[in-house]
Amino acid sequence: MAAASASLALPSPLSSFRSNGPLPSRCFFRLNNPSRSRVFMSVSLGSQTVVDDALFADYKPTSAFLFPGQPAIYVTSLAAVELLRARDGGPQIIDSVDVTCGLSLGEYTALAFAGAFSFDDGLKLVKQRGEAMQEAADAAKSAMVSIIGLDSEKVQQLCDAANQEVDVADKVQIANYLCPGNYAVSGGLKGVEAVEAKAKSFKARMTVRLAVAGAFHTSFMDPAVSRLEAALAATQIRTPRIPVISNVTSPVQWETTVKTLLTKGLKKSYELGPGKVIAGIVKRMDKSTEIENIGA
């Protein structure tokens, strides 16, 4: 990989999406009345306009947490690219980006930016992803909790201790290595509750139960795999025009992703889309690194 003079980082669903806040001028996203079963989306990105009501015709309000939330984040993040492009020097900034990456769902946005698939195809993929993950989350009681103030080895020991007290179906694991001192644990509800109960005895500073639908990035999501595999197999995927740092499989190694960028000589990063979680993580790992949020 070439030295990372500039990078784009895209958010995950754990970043807040402000549906009532200002959106970039080139993006319009509107949820219909919650009692109705349709989502209407109109997106203008550069010269391409997508108006695809039919894509969302089968939307059901019961799955509102992951869908349409995931398409909303995907669309808003790519609209932020155009917001960046529209400002003075924006085209030059975008041309200077030589690597991109995304946290969880953000990988899809990163791949779309890099040209691995079209905006339209990416939107269809994240729709399928959100629906499949919601179905998997609905199938079993599961949860996620963030552990603050412990290194990854201690968090693993905490998981091991909690797993000794629950059945196999409720076991937990580290699902997200965000940054030093901040790791997300996923698993069965009873396992997560055991982690929360034991955290103080392991000297954790605090725990935060995450407002998510289920145990993401664990075997609890296995039921979603076949549907997403089929969607990917039906999608035209091209070689990205720039490198994309991808997690591929297993727990989300975001800490390693950021370390990789820093060791490659990262000079400037742009966090695109809702929330400023990534900027906070990068600054925590290297205060001297410049990162700018676009579209938060």
UniProtKB/TrEMBL annotation:
GO terms for molecular function: transferase activity. Pfam families: Acyl_transf_1. Residues 66-295 form the Malonyl-CoA:ACP transacylase (MAT) domain. SMART domains: PKS_AT. Gene3D superfamilies: Malonyl-CoA ACP transacylase, ACP-binding, Malonyl-Coenzyme A Acyl Carrier Protein, domain 2. PANTHER family: MALONYL-COA ACP TRANSACYLASE, ACP-BINDING, MALONYL-COA:ACP TRANSACYLASE (MAT) DOMAIN-CONTAINING PROTEIN. This is Malonyl-CoA:ACP transacylase (MAT) domain-containing protein. It comes from Gossypium anomalum.
